[in-house]
Amino acid sequence: MDFSRKVGFEVRLRDGARAWIRPVQPEDKARIEHGMKLLSPETRYLRFFNDAAELGGDLLQYLTEVDQQDHVAWIAVNHLLPGEPGIGIARFIILPDDPSTAELALTVVDEYQGLGLGAALMNILLVRAEQLGIRALRAIVLPDNHRVLRWMRRLGATSRYKDGLIELNLAVEGNHVPELEPVKAPANPMSDQMAPMAPMALAADG
């Protein structure tokens, strides 16, 4: 079975480009590794707190071999290009000492930033988090990551300064990315669990 076409959906971004969004699979290791090289040093630094362009094998395994329960991860690919390169990824990991909270991470390659892809990925995480009974998504960001700070605060996230970083906490229940325009309906049928994840709107800075 071609998993990438049986599960997931297509979204149309603000510039007319299209992306396919689906759950991360172990086969995405090379795709994620290549995607790291598409990030600018600044984006890598703001996301990973360093500008390293490569991920180790153990980390790639951790990022791709997920159970979609305690560790939920979805990837966006450009399915119209050979090899379907990764252009964005979002995940959350439930905190072992607080199952009502999950740590959020979201990355979009520079070329696709500001087109709504981050918003689409965020909507997926919010829907899945609500399905799992998670009450808050938490992100840890650098104080100079002004774009993410503005976006998360506009979505209603609270923030606090902790150990030189900013901790953002976004309530899950009833939350969604502010509406601007609808996205294309799912291109293929999905399971009942995944159907609500088709994002219904894009956000101003997503």
List keywords for this structure.
206 residues, Aminopeptidase, eight-stranded mixed beta sheet, 26% helix, disordered N terminus, disordered C terminus
Brief sketch in words of this structure:
By secondary structure, the protein is an alpha+beta fold. It has helices at 3-6, 29-38, 41-48, 57-64, 117-131, 146-154, and strands at 9-12, 18-23, 71-77, 86-95, 98-108, 136-141, 158-162, 165-171.
Class of secondary structure makeup: alpha+beta
Show unreliable segments: 1-5, 179-192, 199-205
| Subunit organisation of the chains | single chain
Helix percentage: 25-40%
Instruction: Report the CATH topology name.
Output: Aminopeptidase
Work out the helix count.
6
Q: What integer is the average pLDDT?
A: 82
What can be said about the biggest beta sheet? Answer: 8 strands, mixed
General form:
globular
Order of strands, widest sheet: 1-2-3-4-5-6-8-7
Total beta strand runs:
8
CATH superfamily (homologous) name: Gcn5-related N-acetyltransferase (GNAT)
CATH domain class name? Alpha Beta
Cα-to-Cα separation, first versus last residue = 32 Å
Rg computed from alpha carbons, rounded to a whole number of angstroms: 16 Å
Strand content: 25-35%
Q: Examine the secondary-structure arrangement and name the CATH architecture.
A: 3-Layer(aba) Sandwich
Q: How many discrete domains?
A: 1
Elements, N to C (H/E): HEEHHHEEEHEHEE
Describe this structure as you would to a colleague.
- Strand 5, helix 5 and strand 6 (136-141) form a beta-alpha-beta unit.
- This protein has one domain: Aminopeptidase, CATH 3.40.630.30.
- The protein is of the alpha+beta class.
- Strands 1-2-3-4-5-6-8-7 form an eight-stranded mixed sheet, sandwiched between helices.
- The radius of gyration is 16 Å and the shape is globular.
- It has helices at 3-6, 29-38, 41-48, 57-64, 117-131, 146-154, and strands at residues 9-12, 18-23, 71-77, 86-95, 98-108, 136-141, 158-162, 165-171.
